[in-house]
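Record F-box domain-containing protein, 531 aa.
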Amino acid sequence: MASPLVDDKRSTLDRLPAELVECVLLDLSLDDIRNVRLVSHGVYATASSGRFKTFCRTRPVDLRSHALAKLSERIAPGSIACNLQDLTVTGVLYVTTSLEKILRTKTVPADPIDIFGKREDALGNSTAIRPNRVSASSERMVDTQRELDVLRTCQEEAALERSLGRDYSALVELFRCLREHGVLHGLRSVTLDVTIERIAERRLAPKDGGAWRPIWETAARTFQVTMRALAAAGLPLQRLDAFAHVNTCSLSGFDMACMLQDNPPDMFDDLLQNIRSLSISTSKRLLHPIGFAALQDADPDDEVHEHRFDNNRRDRLASIVPPTPAGLAELEAMAADSRDTTGLAHLLAKTPQLEELDLQSYYLYYSFLSAPSAPEGDKVTTANIVRTSGLRRLKKLTLRGRTVDVTDLLGLLNANPDLEAVDFGNIWLHGTWQPVFAHLTSANNKFTRLHFDVVFETTATGSAYVQFPGIRSGILSVPAPAGAAAFTLEGRESVLQGITYKRSEQWVMGCVQHSRWRQERRRVYGPPGAW
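=>
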């Protein structure tokens, strides 16, 4: 390969940031890139770097028709964009309440990073307080009105795209371009994500986005549109990550069941039967709150949400719409819909080649239901997976935040004799862990890595936190340090030594330490109504 020409003066390209050079190179053919490399040190270094090669193989794209069309245009014969192998599809939620509040109150958050007044105490627990706000200048008010107009335009355009199916059509076209011109004639992985725009072109992650219910609705639509587009384009796919590593974002089993029911029975068969790795975040069905819960779950910058802080109790009560018996009965029926506990199992039943499974679970708490505390639904979901999914080829299993019966967990492990690694975090086991540990460390199995991080068991004698040898027990009033509850066995020899444990008498259900563990879990993983 020829070296770039040496010149005393740096070229214009050499003065550009590396990120901008990467964007320029993406629009060039391979022949043009080779030629430009000879006249620019910056391009030569950028195009030769491992970072750029990775940049070409991995791309994020918004689920908006113009962004999808632009990427499709780049994927042409001879284009470096044909190297795309790992794609992240991001659903975008536009929320105008923050800008509307600035105009309504003529104030802005004192801390532009912490706009909702969320704080963490010395133990890392989250506390929601009224955020400090300061007066907005006249210039800021003008800028806010302009930003609000832009954001409302984006909101309206996105709604129109959804109603006409333009984002779906553009995504199908992108997948067809990849199937025809991509180096893999398919994709190695698709990752689903959600982002929130409260101010134009300034994006927030779901855990910082505030409006958690619209976030989850956006996630559900992003999942369904992407799955339909993949199936329609006939694009081969090896790995799918559906919000498994996005905090405060999840799919319900009901969403999955509806997707399978509302489309032809065999529509997703070709797509799912070739998937080797699936990571997915699941929860119960999303119900719209009533009564005081509607104030609690409103967007933090919505005027309705502010009624929680009304000094006059009469004013606060007047803002609450009381639930009707018919409305409560309808919500009870929706919460009891069996599709919520069977949807994931039916989806997994279409993945016979699956080798890696990562299931993250959120527990949604609905105070307005007669039985709001229902981790039993999560236990039933796991039981349905064991009985219906037909998983037989798993090599790696990750379970996080799930409630499981010991019989079902053993059934899942026994049905997959090729399992080599398990990762259990925040697992509540109905039964004792002894038979599970005995199975995992048996010489008849193939396990080489076992990892546990905060696991509980419930037996006839009560519920307790599981403590492993060498793990320092936490003080009753202070949670154990991060990672102190983790226990890992690496290597076949370590696994065969077996596992001994004891039930911690200091961390039982209802104690201070367990309550703070729940607070920490809610802060890291779940929305305000989560477990």
